[in-house]
Amino acid sequence: MSSRVIRKLKRETELDPLNAILKQEKDGKGDHSEEEEENEEISMNSKKGNIFALLGDDDNEENSENEEESEENEIQKLKKQKKKKKKKPKSKASKHEAEAHEEDDIQKALKELNMSSRDAADAGAGASLSTPKKPILQVEHKHLNPDNEMKRIFGSKVVQSWQRQQQQHKRVRRSNCWLVQPKGSWAPFRRNGLSMKQLESKNRSSYFAFEHSKEYQQVQFRFLDNVESYHPEALLDILQESPYHMDTLLQASDMFRTSDDTQTAVDLLERAIFACENSFHSLFNLSSGTCRLDYRRPENRSFYIALFKYLIFLGLRGCPRTSLEFAKLLLSLDPDGDPLGIFLLIDFFSLRSREYEYFIEFFNCFEPIRNLSLLPNYQFSLPLAKFQLAQTKNDQQGIVQAEEGLRRALISFPSMLMQLLDKCGVNPGKDVEDHWLFSKFATASEPAAVQQLVSLYVGRCYSEWKEPEVVAWLEQVVQNLVKSLEKKDPIVSDMKSKRFQRFKGTPLNVYRHLYLSEIKEVKLDLPPELTGSGIFAFDPLPPKDSILSYQRPPPQQPRRLQGQGAVGMFLRSIWPNFNITEELMNQEANNNGNQEGQEAGAAGGEPWRHGVANLLDAMRELLNTIHFADPQNGNPQQQEEEENEDEWADEDQ
């Protein structure tokens, strides 16, 4: 046997271990050096050649030598190819390093931009609220449904059981609305001339406006004529013809509220909100926090007023988290102007819903721009939020910071303490009551605007200060302040001078907020120039620079209910701008001393009270039974689509 054949047989015995090694390499389980990989690949390739060479002629030695030379040439080629292959991972590694380097550069640039934006926010010069932080004013859909909050408080089974009892004989329509869900007693919604258009987009915000069609404008003119002529019974005709007319729903809701029918009043508010939501523009996104509505446009104000009154009701119902979400929505519509003073109540709903971290973040975001620390509600609510948060986390340093903030708040607004303690039913003690900073004599000379804001905060937020832990903490801070504070301390005189400089008058949006809030502790003393033309529930205290998209024709001669004794007097008393002194003077002037007419009117007062009650009952019945007749001549396909949209299903939310 030739040496060539012996070499082939020897290599054949090494074939199995080489195949095993190569299999491990393919599976990623082998860990070999570069030289071992080269030798294994060379041996395998040479073995492949030897297998087919065994089929040749063994006696031909010259062929064997040629084959050996060819094998050596192939080995050299394989080595060169292997070296080229090994360069590729290096190129990949270098590529990864380059990409990583680029990513580092990008991250570095982003960090620099972030730092520069923070510096700009801290500076606060020339800043605007047109582009607020997204997490601050972004609205979450799940928090707009009060049923979700009730389920978190009482459990889903309890709420669902209550819903089944309430809706046992009622049906509701399926709807994709965010703000309110339609009820079975409502009339099917049809386009009534209320729509929305997009005005412009600038500074990452989109500006929209509601608009009225010609038919809707005619209904609006009729409504204004009836309101100004004190004809509440005329609202029945308007609701029957246009059951989703915004201002009529708002005015009727206020009438039912004054008659202590809260359920019907809220139902009318929900109808108004439902009508607005069905008129939204396709690009109007509630959750973005960047869609704006100008309050100076009368068409937009109805949506503002309906949302504000609705969130107040939700707070009374025990859904502060839902009220907070609606407050965020209202503020996002006009954060620069804040026409309804949402900054004055967002702290209350944050505390009430235990959203302490959100409130602190909210304050830190808007403080450089709006100077929220100048308002008494933030001076006191912020330390309270920090104290509650530190209590939950057992953070002693946070409690110390809260005490410092409360101490500063007491010095800035000393008139707050005695009113707050009195509302909470806490005895301040003789040393505190007679202290030169907190005495009644010292706080009696506060500006009228400060007294209004302090009374508003006490009437709204006193419940958050009645907790035993909070009362004990407040008493401790007050005692330490009384012992350490000296009368000649410059910070006291400095804060007093700043109060008189900053609160010289009350802005119109604050007056509007006080009027809509209806806090009994607040004495709403409106200046004569604001009450001269009357105050109506659908548009209280309109701005002086209103933007009118269409002109109202000259109103008809008002048909006042003069000369009708107690009848007209009582019907006019339903309206919020009723002035008993003025009405009595007009009554006396018109009667011209007719004593008999006055006595007859006084005698008929009580029966006419029942007449007005019958009027409200008739309106309730109308609201529950109003419906549209099906069109006789119409597109069958369109009618079928509308029927599918209005299909009824059991309520399961």
Keywords:
single chain; mainly alpha; disordered C terminus; 4% strand
Describe this structure in words.
By secondary structure, the protein is mainly alpha-helical. 63% of the residues lie in helices and 4% in strands. A three-stranded mixed sheet has the order 2-3-4. A two-stranded antiparallel sheet has the order 1-5.
- Tell me the quaternary state: single chain
What is the number of helical segments per DSSP (H or I, 4+ residues)?
30
Global structural class = mainly alpha
Distance between the termini: 93 Å
Detail the poorly predicted runs. Answer: 20-68, 82-93, 110-133, 558-571, 591-609, 628-653
Number of strands: 5
What's the helical proportion of residues?
55-70%
Strand order of the largest sheet: 2-3-4
The largest sheet is: 3 strands, mixed
Percent of residues in beta strands: under 5%
Shape: globular
Mean pLDDT: 75
Task: Give a brief description.
This protein has helices at 3-13, 15-27, 34-53, 61-123, 134-137, 146-154, 156-166, 214-228, 234-241, 246-258, 262-277, 298-317, 320-333, 346-352, 356-370, 376-393, 396-412, 415-424, 430-433, 440-443, 448-461, 468-484, 490-502, 508-517, 528-531, 566-573, 580-591, 595-603, 605-625, 636-645; strands spanning 172-173, 194-202, 205-212, 291-293, 648-649. It is mostly helical. The longest helix is centred in the first third of the chain and has 63 residues, at 61-123.
